[in-house]
Write a structure and sequence with these properties.
Layout (H helix, E strand, L loop, with lengths): L1 H20 L22 H4 L7 H13 L1 H22 L4 E4 L2 E7 L17 E17 L4 H67 L5 H35 L28 H4 L3 H22 L4 E12 L11 E10 L7 H67 L5 H35 L5
Antiparallel strand pairs: 1-3, 2-3, 3-4, 4-5
């Protein structure tokens, strides 16, 4: 019995010692706490948009990052991945089980026997087996790092799912910013139309006064009324478009569209100045999709080592112990104690080249992951360069449009003065007013596009300049 206890203690101590030493080889990904979208890992998703210096935009992005259902799904998947890592790490520890067995068996009177007997019929026997607190223990000695590399693959997959959260956060934040500036552009365009409606109302008053004085005919008044009615129709269309944009923003922020509102404002012109004139590779590597592609490539590389370990023997330490007796009275006698200690080794001899093909498959998956990384890098470069080129040309367009608008306003004022003096027709006034309206709306459109290109560039750089 002392020898039995010594063997059992030696086995459990050996398994426990190895299992305590080996988890240090893993990445430690399961250390305390759960993944939170508001943790320091996700700060760039918020702080990067502060360059716009718009408190309303900041609050909407915070709301979206907190309440968006897609982000919640991605965060839940991170928690699933963390659990998978803990499951994989559990194979580094020994497996110990215990149970209680009670069996009774009645042997047939005509049972076969190993020695000849004079009678075919034997006495019926009743066999009882009672086993209390049997302990079965096993431990795989990870000599070829199969289990530890499996943990590494699982942890890298966990990092991939965390990158999914950052990708989703970046998409949500950029889409919130894009819709927000479309709403602000809509507000500015409505303000332009309302201002033009006010100017045309004053023009109608002048026409009516001239008509009553007999200086013009009724056609000019009707033309002016028709034109202002058409402008009001455009205003109603903008109000409808704003409602659609607000509803879309409510969905991104995880809010009820029936109660979600965005206060009226204007599209600002103070967009952030870029601290660079060209895009570097280091700026692009901050993108979460590129980080994810790199993590997928690393996971595929480690998977090659996991598959290669299948070619080598798997060694297990096994042990069992407990009491075994056929009657209750002798259950706790020292003579009823039983144990088993041993080592099992499983060596693959022939499996139809399955293990070799698994290695080839893992190598090909690594190549695929590497090609995917290169492809994502090309997409990132294209997106960033396109947004940067658009921004640089947009400044020139806005400057040119400001000059055009200034000229159109001067022409409109001049035509109004000439019309009041009777030196030109109302058609000239009407045409100049339409030109001013078109020029002001075009300027708002260009400013909105500049905002969209700034958002696109920020997104292309991973959410930070």
């Amino acid at each position: 019995m002392r020898k039995t206890a010594l063997f059992s203690f030696t086995f459990l101590w050996l398994a426990g010692t190895v299992s305590r030493a080996q988890p240090a080889a893993s990445s430690g990904s399961t250390s305390g706490g759960s993944f939170s979208p508001g943790s320091s890992q996700s700060d760039p998703a918020r702080s990067g948009w502060a360059v716009f210096r718009d408190a309303t935009l900041d609050s909407l992005i915070d709301l979206g990052l907190t309440s968006n259902p897609d982000i919640r799904v991605a965060v839940s998947r991170v928690e699933e991945a963390r659990i998978r890592v803990r499951v994989a790490e559990s194979f580094l520890a020994p497996s110990i089980r215990s149970s209680m067995n009670f069996n009774t068996q009645s042997l047939s009177e005509y049972r076969p026997v190993a020695v000849p007997v004079t009678s075919e019929r034997l006495p019926r026997l009743q066999l009882n087996t009672l086993q209390i607190l049997p302990i079965d223990a096993s431990y795989e000695v990870d000599l070829f790092r199969r289990i530890r590399n499996t943990v590494r693959v699982t942890d890298l997959q966990r990092q991939v799912t965390e990158s999914d959260v950052h990708i989703t956060q970046l998409i949500v934040a950029s889409e919130v910013a894009r819709l927000y500036y479309l709403i602000r552009a809509n507000d500015s365009e409505q303000a332009v139309i309302r201002r033009n409606i006010g100017l045309r109302d004053s023009t109608i008053s002048i026409i009516r006064a001239r008509f009553q004085a007999g200086l013009t005919n009724e056609i000019d008044a009707k033309r002016a009324e028709t034109d202002i009615a058409n402008v009001r129709v455009q205003l109603l269309g903008l109000e409808r478009s704003r409602a659609e944009l607000v509803n879309g923003l409510a969905g991104l922020c995880g809010q009820n569209p029936a109660t979600f509102t965005v206060s009226t404002g204007r599209l600002g012109t103070g967009f952030p100045e870029l601290p660079f004139t060209a895009i570097s590779a280091d700026q692009l590597r901050r993108r979460p999709d590129l980080l994810q592609a790199e993590q997928q490539s690393q996971a595929a590389n480690v998977q090659i080592q996991v598959n290669r370990a299948a070619l080598y023997p798997r060694i297990n330490l096994v042990g069992a112990g407990g009491t075994l007796t056929g009657r209750i009275g002798g259950l706790f006698f020292p003579a009823s104690m039983t144990y088993l200690l041993g080592i099992n080794a499983s060596v693959p001899l022939f499996e139809g080249k399955r293990n070799q093909q698994n290695i080839v498959l893992a190598q090909q998956q690594f190549k695929t992951a590497d090609y995917a990384y290169q492809q994502r890098m090309l997409v990132a470069q294209r997106e960033a360069e396109t947004a940067l080129d658009n921004l640089q040309s947009m400044r020139q367009q806005i400057d040119a449009q400001n000059l055009a608008l200034e000229s159109a306003r001067y022409t409109e004022r001049l035509n109004r003065e000439l019309y009041v003096k009777g030196l030109t027709t109302f058609l000239e006034v009407l045409d100049s007013q339409r030109t001013v309206l078109d020029s002001e709306r075009q300027l708002v459109l260009l400013q909105s596009q500049r905002a969209s290109y700034t958002v696109a560039l920020l997104k292309a750089l991973g959410g930070s300049f």
